[in-house]
Amino acid sequence: MMSRGATTVVRSVMGQMGPRLFSTAAGNASITGVMRANAGLIGSEKAVVTWWITSSPIGARHASTMTLGEKVQQPDQKEEATGSGGAAAGGQKGKEVVSYWGVQPPKVTKEDGSEWKWHCFRPWETYQADLSIDLKKHHTPTTFLDKLAYWTVKSLRFPTDVFFQKRYGCRAMMLETVAAVPGMVGGMLLHCKSLRRFEPSGGWIKALLEEAENERMHLMTFMEVSKPRWYERALVFTVQGVFFNAYFLAYLASPKLAHRIVGYLEEEAIHSYTEFLKELDKGTIENVKAPAIAIDYWRLPADSTLRDVVMVVRADEAHHRDVNHFASDIHYQGLELKDSPAPIGYH
């Protein structure tokens, strides 16, 4: 037990340090010994929850302040929160996501200084499609696995033709929901393999995930052009569920077969987009202005049209065709993908 003299010294020290310990948290408010919640910080709908803990007979404890929003907001930050022209005065669009953890999203602008409005991709992920690629290249199936892959893809084309007929906008939308699956599955399995074997992937993880992301951006583009109907959305759930699991098992069993299937799928995609272009040239499908997301993603001219978008998407599919046939050939030669540098950025 403490002596009376020691107790007196401790109380004296705490009496002097208590106001200093809590002055920054309390400001001009008094120490109350309770938890208080203040709403309406700097004119916004952020709440500040503050714990006030005073000295007790057993000594001082920690004081903690948690801000459900921003801890401190400087005058210049106030202007950013409200947005230019009072954009944040009302509505969901003007609100900013804030976090107690201090993670602030970077402010990205275009080359001309204007605000970058796309969150699904950034300026350094954009590119100009190589339209000079040979669209007529075809891998002639010779082995049993090649023929199996080829006729599997051909058999899938028939129900697609029957269902979508000449509605190529919706056909493209449906195609991209499937085309974005193989790259993600292959990249995921290579990632796990790299972790299990403590070995590099030769860049193929990144290459396949890059392919999947590119296909997903095709989907984001065509969603602006063609609005899917409810039964088409339902079909996506079914087809994606079946295809994901089937491709997952196929890749586990034989990567050479899986990549060959994707190579032939991309050949069919080239054919579909070629037919799409024919309908646009005939006037059957209106050649509308290119979506803004496509203009920024492919660095297209501002006056680009839907035809220009289909051209660059078809070129992407041709590059994916080459990558997957190349990956299959690597396995056919008795090697692994890591033995050959991946064509990162090939699309």
Automatic annotation (TrEMBL):
Q: Which residues form the signal peptide?
A: none
Q: Which PANTHER family match?
A: ALTERNATIVE OXIDASE
Give the protein's cofactors. Answer: Fe cation
Subcellular localization: Mitochondrion inner membrane
Q: What is its main location?
A: mitochondrion
Q: Where is this region: Disordered?
A: 68-93
Catalysed reaction(s)? 2 a ubiquinol + O2 = 2 a ubiquinone + 2 H2O
EC number per UniProt? 1.10.3.11
Gene3D superfamilies, per the entry: Alternative oxidase
The record's InterPro entries line, in alphabetical order, gives:
AOX, AOX_sf
Its assembly, as annotated, is: Homodimer; disulfide-linked.
Q: What is this protein called?
A: Ubiquinol oxidase
List the biased-composition ranges (Gly residues): 83-92
In what way does this protein cross or attach to the membrane? Answer: Multi-pass membrane protein
Cofactor binding mode and count: Binds 2 iron ions per subunit.
Keywords (A to Z) from UniProt: Electron transport, Iron, Membrane, Metal-binding, Mitochondrion, Mitochondrion inner membrane, Oxidoreductase, Respiratory chain, Transit peptide, Transmembrane, Transmembrane helix, Transport
Pfam families assigned to the protein according to its UniProt record, in alphabetical order: AOX
Question: In its keyword annotation, does this UniProt entry include Methyltransferase?
Answer: no
Q: Which family does it belong to?
A: Belongs to the alternative oxidase family.
